[in-house]
Amino acid sequence: MLTKNAEKLIRSLIYRKNRKKTGLFVAEGMKLVRDFVSAGISAHIVYYTHELDAVFTGENVVKISATEMKSISALDTPSPILALFEKPKSSIKDFEKDSIILLLDRIQDPGNMGTLLRTALWYDIKSIATTEGTVDVFSPKVVQSSMGAHTHVKTVQQDEADWVDWAKKNGYTFVIADIEGVNVRRFSWPDRTILVLGNEGQGPSKMLKKCR
Question: Which of 158, 131, 142 is nearest to 109 (CA)?
Fold first, then answer.
């Protein structure tokens, strides 16, 4: 059974401030939820309408009606499963041994963010840095469009000036993705790289451009 308080909580998680306050995020869809559970990401609660396999066990697994699922789902066609997960905690110290870091500067569109997370993982880039003003990587639309990339990547957000300072202290070179830049096929990559992809309309910030 879905309680009113539970429904209220789920609806509140569309807002970044509530995800930050509770430390929770929403995931929908059997494959996506199973990927999170299998990766060891702690499930706060799992709601389902059909029978589940053995990976889903415990008191925090609750069966609800299709009507109740429709009332909490953000999808046009509700999935038979929706779960609240505790956000994984990533530290900037986790980035220090990586040869390449992807820095996303003020990316606004959740679909774009999800695609970038998937693409980064495809290229085995698992450290994702973001600047203030970037869409939250745990927003429901980003989680859905990332198709499980969150189970493999680490994400940390801080101000661009802090990234610049951190890069200098740790020996990283900024590489800016720019339409007027050198062809990537002819580019010589630094040993320790922070690859910057900027805002959809404005591109990277002036501060980051000065660092290249």
Answer: 142
- Residue 150 is given by DSSP the state G
Give the SS3 label for residue 44.
strand
Q: Chain-centre distance of CA 96, in angstroms?
A: 20
The answer to whether the CB of 105 falls within 8 A of the CB of 199 is yes
- For residues 136-155, give the mean pLDDT: 96
Instruction: Tell me how far apart the alpha carbons of residues 95 and 72 are, in angstroms, rounded to a whole number.
Output: 36
Largest interatomic CA distance in the chain: 59
pTM: 0.91
Residue among 103, 132, 126, 128 at smallest CA distance from 16: 132
Q: Which domains does the chain have, with CATH numbers?
A: 4-86 (3.30.1330.30), 92-209 (3.40.1280.10)
